[in-house]
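User: Last request for today: this protein with coenzyme A, please.
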Amino acid sequence: MRRSGQKAFTDFLGDSQRMHSAGPSEVTIAPLRKEELSEADHILRLAFGTFLGVPEPARIFGDRQIIANRWRMNPLWILGARLDGELVGSNVLTKWGAFGWFGPLTVRPDLWDRGIAGKLMGPTMELFSSWKTTHEGLMTFANSPKHLGLYQKFGFHPRFLTAIMQKKVEAPSTKRNRVTFDTFSGLRGDKERRAVLKECQELTDSILAGLDVSEEIKAVQELKLGDTVLVRDGSQTVGFAVCHVGPNTEAGSGTCYIKFGLAGGRAGAGARFRDLLAACESVGSQNGAETLEAGVNLARTEAYAEMRACGFLTEFQGVSMQRPNEPGYNRPGVFAIDDLR
Ligand SMILES: CC(C)(COP(=O)(O)OP(=O)(O)OC[C@H]1O[C@@H](n2cnc3c(N)ncnc32)[C@H](O)[C@@H]1OP(=O)(O)O)[C@@H](O)C(=O)NCCC(=O)NCCS
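Assistant: Here's the final one, the structure of the complex with coenzyme A:
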């Protein structure tokens, strides 16, 4: 799909490969190749499963799919680490306009604490710099000094917690759930889609200059990962949520996962945010999901409160790390959903 910046990246890669394959270490960093996708996915599961101490580490996350879909979005934005040519880790980068973030970053467990993640971070930071992002972030394990120490070395600061929350999907017939909304897949033709993408971009730009999640909306549409819910005021889009639904997406079977959501405007944004959550629940219900999942940074105090009031319970808490050490769009008054997982 998106290939923009390919030349800049290739130029940068020439330098980076020379730099990161130099010296006594045989670790080289370069974009993940198609034939490495399944090994990268295996390492991802093994690494998280081992870190979290689950009984069968390689089976963690079930039929959720991250690596392959993000690779299809842009194969240059997943970096692979190789030791003597063998894949041993990867890092997935995302460019949301002026905001860059990364994750999941994983290294094969038998090779932990040998500096491989650090080697992946060098080209990661160079890629951000080639993108000219103004703000970068990630979410990691709040209770791990190692994780915080690793990212602090690259200028990221631990700030507020991010809660990954869930609620049971209720049938849209219940009173609270009855809300009118549109979907990106239901728009008529390219002209209308382009107009809505622009409105969504204006909404994101209003919370962080240059923030733009258009590629996520387009990927969900083109890769058939779910749908983007649109809350309208007349013909104007005032809120939207990019939802992954079902197996082989970032949601997994039985789940509707809001990858990014935002209700805009000052006055009435809380009510619009509630409508947005209800619309996502409806889309989940229509697609057979039993669980609605969404992450929110706790600095977005009102959004967090609204989610709790709507029945969401926290399943997991991580810490958001930001570079520079500024709130970005993690601040009161921002009715946004994301977790940078
Ligand atoms: C997190 C993970 C990617 C790290 O990979 P790794 O190759 O073991 O990490 P590295 O060896 O490159 O770097 C670890 C750094 O943390 C530092 N560190 C370790 N313990 C620390 C502590 N208590 N305080 C501060 N820093 C610490 C180390 O000193 C090292 O830095 P150095 O290379 O300058 O010495 C890997 O453990 C992993 O895959 N974990 C499971 C999945 C996961 O949690 N991914 C990250 C999600 S955000």
